[in-house]
Amino acid sequence: MSATEVKRTLSFTQAADDEKTIYQRSKPGRRAFTPPPLDVPERPLDELLPASLRRSEAARLPEVSEPEIVRHYNRLSKRNFDLDTGFYPLGSCTMKHNPKLHERVAALPGHAKLHPFQDPADAQGALELMWRLQYALGEISGLPHVSLQPSAGSHGELAGVLLTRAYHEDRGQHRTKVLTPDTAHGTNPATVTMAGYEVVKVGTDADGNVDIEDLRAKATDDVACLMLTNPSTLGLFEPQIKEIAEIVHSVGATLYYDGANLNAIMGICRPGDMGFDIVHFNLHKSFTQPHGGGGPGSGPIAVSDRIEPYLPRPQVVRRPGTGGDVGGVSSRPPTPNRSTNGEQWSYDLDYDRPKSIGRLRGFQGNFGVFVRSYAYIRSLGAGGLKEASEVAVLNANYLLAKLRQEGVLEYLPAAYDRLCMHEFVLSGAPMKRELGIKTLDLAKRLLDHGVHPPTVYFPLLVEEALLVEPTETETRETLDDFAAMVAEVLREAKEDPEIARNAPYTTPVRRLDEAGAARNPVLRQQL
Amino acid sequence: MSRYTSVTEQDLEQMLATIGVATVEDLFADIPPVLRLGRPLALDEGLSEQEVYGELRTLAARNVSTEDEVTFLGAGMYDHYIPALIDSIIMRSEFLTPYTPYQPEISQGGLQAMFEYQTAISELTGLPVSNGSVYEGPSAVAAAGYIAKHHNGRKRFVISRGVHPHAIETLQTLAVGYGMDVEIVELTDGVTKLPELDDQVSAVIVAQPNFLGAVEPLQEIAEAAHAAGALAVCSADPIPLGLLEAPGDQGIDVVVGEGQTLGNRLDFGGPSFGFFAVTQDLVRRLPGRIAGETRDMDGKRGFVLTLQTREQHIRREKATSNICTSQALNALAGVIYLSWLGRRGLVELGELLVQKTAYAREQLASLSGVSLSHTQPVVREFPIRIEGGVDKAIAHCKAQGINPGYRLSDDELLVAITEQRTRAQIDSLVAAVKEALV
Amino acid sequence: MAQVSYPAELKYHAEHDWARIEGDEATFGITWYAQDSLGEIVFFDAPAVGTVVTKDEQYTEVESVKAVSDVVAPLSGEIIAINETLTSSPESVNEDPYGAGWLVKVKLSDPSEADSLMDASDYEASLS
């Protein structure tokens, strides 16, 4: 073996057997769990749970000791790239730093070990936290009525469309269509269909904004709603938003705001003031809930007065008074339920909502996520939230300018030649034509440079799209380095496009056969 | 500059110069002045880390958690013991902070964990294919309804009253959008006895064990559903599945459920995860992310998100679900927990629950004034009826630091047992209820 | 993957489908351009034999790893055969889109509809 070959096959963090699954490490008889003692009189199991109801063979779960579990998942973790480790400019995902305080407060037993069916009188801390979070989100969005219930962004979208339906039905109207821009995230049309409406696409003009004339033509009184993201998925602010709102409202439809891009405008402008009726938030985007490799998230919604009656049940409400008289049976002496500013309120879950669309999920939402988001809002405060958005937009524009300086935009021009907001879209079409590498190849080669690539092939409107969102928590040096990296990949491709086409080289696995995985799906270990 | 941003005066000057604008304000030129907020947000200014911690502690102190009282509250989420190794693993940056694994080459950790999770769920449910998780239990039931709609195009769901009330309500909310009806079948002596099913029934939905803790006759129910051409759907509590016959082996087509009990916190109701498993022929309708095994260009075994054409980002309006973010971290906690329990351990835990539950049930039923609402076999939860109403008993128990269970109605209480409930604790529950009845 | 080609003996539909007409029967498939845009085909959702297809309307779908595409019928008729080999080898559509990668055989209800289809050179010209 040559010196380079040795390097390629071994690494101190990657043993050859790292590919084993936990099942492949199992050995019959090994165990990590020792049960607590059976301290009640034992009865024959067959009497309590007849054999006919029971499995004849135990489910084939792993058989490993605690050290093996810890080592297995530790080693697996080292086969993951993550935000704490490096730059992650995934457009549309807002990969901003996850403050470490949040794990500490979320783990407080008073929050983490609180049963969801606990008597509200004994959950005043949790309910107050939820109420205050609702208030803050209402202020940030400009729409005062908030439900924290939806589990994630697309769940919030579904809530929004179902609220729209309830609103129209309550007025005896049976509308059939929902408008979405052709740049919309896939969750928008999927949600519309789930809610029983037909999707109608609205075009985008040459500047990257909603085509007003197309909207005017399609906004009939059979339209229930227009779903919009502002800034759009192209990272551009819709300057004609007031006019759009007028057109939509003039036919009696609702205007829905997809809050995925809220990071550009906190404290600067508000969807409620732009005329939106319903807004959803992604707490795992702007509000720092860690992405967890694909969740959990949370998708609260905020609505205008006319939509408020239809909000999901239950709602968190507050009433003047001391703790203990909330209803339910708490024998604890009424604690002086003073909020942190000295006022006395009691908090409750209100189920008495006759026009509500009902529930969207169990219990009251992802409370663990609320704790983290609330801590974030309290940490930043009014000034900090605005600063976050300003720096998000500053960083995006700076990175775009640096890429231009490095000559990158020659091959990856910005899809729209204007200032962007918190993210921007580049098109890899010239790169593909002239250098023979696609956006995908650029992304794969960037993996070797130790960064997560930007979002690829979204939005669909831009050919060979690359959607870049640095966020406000990155330093200028990181942005400079990234621009240089991209320039380096292009330079290399000019010499030899094959390098990027076969990248990555230094990751735990190289390019994978996705077609094979889809043709012959193997979705579990065979045991 | 906050503690999370890093733009110094010097940085700002140079960055603005590079961009070619004079001020940060200039970057927002696209926003019409009439839309500018023009005032600070009506929120307090930011606090130091220690102040934020102090406030969150104060709020936590006003909650009565399972560390503050002995709880017999269940009804969908349970006070199981969560082993320390779970947090030590899921708090790792590499699991906590990445996004969905769209670049599989640098996400093999998360993708392999998902594959291992899918295997465990497939084993528990007795069905060949599981996805990588959905939000939680009740919305999984509604999602199962959506795939039944796509599968057979029929008009109605038949759902047992034995399914968790939140799942029934969620299905009702979403059925409005699906354009379908929901028919609820009441329990008979604690279990589900299906009525005649016509050819408009899209899916029959039951829970195992049901909301009143009883073990349901899944085989019969699946056969009745299939005879009518409907899908058989079961929402299952995963811990009892260690002992009970797997629903997939009894003819159930779709098994979903609430995953909180598998290594996840109570967290006042969320986040947790839902699991979702189906038969082979429903695999292309399965919602959510799925990890699949494959090889890389060097022949090494690896994992990728697969069958993505089911999903919203590709199929858009024709997708079988709109799910984007799921519950990856919670599902990871789930598979670590199942690995920790292990093959023998899950069975032992189940047997322990059955014994302790039987003891609690027997002791409570022996009190005069207390009767059992049903006598079906149970695994970990059962309802009791208290003459004269439950409120006095609840108040009396709470005063002694015991939460006796979920208030089903004016005179019924649902009592849940976990492995954390010692005999002494069960005895004090019984004693407290007895005192209250005097 | 196959080389670019648009066989002269076939007729073409603007939605990137071809038809090989033999009397009152025809074989349908997707063109080289279609399979190239889709990428590696992983799944073909075969319609049932006996299904009626209508000219210009979608009659099935073809999936690649990253995309789903509607397949449009170039002519009207009733499906008399489907290409069973595509269940195990959907990649034939990429490798041999006009031969082993055929999708369905149809008994035509109105053979005169063929007049509205393009020939190979017109179709190829329409692609640029």
List the helices and strands and how they pair.
The complex is a heterotrimer of chains A (527), B (438) and C (128).
Chain A: H1 3-9, H2 45-48, H3 66-77, H4 101-106, H5 109-112, H6 124-141, E1 145-147, H7 153-170, E2 177-181, H8 187-194, E3 198-202, H9 212-218, E4 223-228, H10 241-250, E5 254-258, H11 271-274, E6 278-280, E7 301-303, E8 315-320, E9 345-350, H12 367-405, E10 424-427, H13 429-435, H14 439-448, E11 455-456, E12 465-468, H15 476-495, H16 497-501, H17 514-519
Parallel strand pairs in A: 2-3, 2-4, 4-5, 5-6
Antiparallel strand pairs in A: 1-7, 6-7, 8-9, 10-12, 11-12
Helix pairs in contact in A: 6-12, 7-8, 12-15
Chain B: H1 9-19, H2 49-61, E1 70-71, H3 84-90, H4 93-96, H5 108-125, E2 129-130, H6 137-152, E3 156-160, H7 165-178, E4 181-185, E5 187-188, E6 191-192, E7 201-208, H8 218-227, E8 231-236, E9 254-258, E10 274-278, E11 291-295, E12 301-305, H9 312-315, H10 328-365, E13 370-372, E14 381-386, H11 391-399, E15 402-403, E16 406-409, E17 412-416, H12 423-437
Parallel strand pairs in B: 1-15, 3-4, 3-7, 7-8, 8-9
Antiparallel strand pairs in B: 2-10, 5-6, 9-10, 11-12, 13-14, 14-17, 16-17
Helix pairs in contact in B: 3-10, 5-10, 6-7, 10-12, 11-12
Chain C: E1 11-13, E2 17-22, E3 25-30, H1 32-38, E4 41-44, E5 52-53, E6 58-64, E7 68-72, E8 77-82, H2 92-95, E9 104-108, H3 120-126
Antiparallel strand pairs in C: 1-2, 2-3, 3-9, 4-6, 5-8, 6-7, 8-9
Tell me what you see in this structure.
- The complex is a heterotrimer of chains A (527), B (438) and C (128).
- By secondary structure, chain A is α/β, with parallel strands linked by helices.
- Chain A has 17 helices and 12 strands.
- Chain A folds into 3 domains: 3-50 and 59-77, no CATH class; 101-376, Aspartate Aminotransferase, domain 2 (3-Layer(aba) Sandwich); 388-516, Aspartate Aminotransferase, domain 1 (Alpha-Beta Complex), CATH 3.90.1150.10.
- Chain A has helices at 3-9, 45-48, 66-77, 101-106, 109-112, 124-141, 153-170, 187-194, 212-218, 241-250, 271-274, 367-405, 429-435, 439-448, 476-495, 497-501, 514-519; strands spanning 145-147, 177-181, 198-202, 223-228, 254-258, 278-280, 301-303, 315-320, 345-350, 424-427, 455-456, 465-468.
- In chain A, the strands form 3 sheets. A 7-stranded mixed beta sheet of chain A has the order 1-7-6-5-4-2-3, with helices on both faces.
- Chain B is an alpha/beta fold and 438 residues long.
- The longest helix of chain B is centred in the C-terminal third of the chain and has 38 residues, at 328-365.
- Chain B has 3 domains: 9-51, no CATH class; 70-80 and 344-437, Aspartate Aminotransferase, domain 1 (Alpha-Beta Complex); 85-336, Type I PLP-dependent aspartate aminotransferase-like (Major domain) (Aspartate Aminotransferase, domain 2).
- Chain C has a single domain (11-112), classed as RNA polymerase II/Efflux pump adaptor protein, barrel-sandwich hybrid domain (OB fold (Dihydrolipoamide Acetyltransferase, E2P), Beta Barrel), CATH 2.40.50.
- Chain B binds chain C through residues 284, 308-309, 314-315, 318, and chain C through 42-43, 63-68.
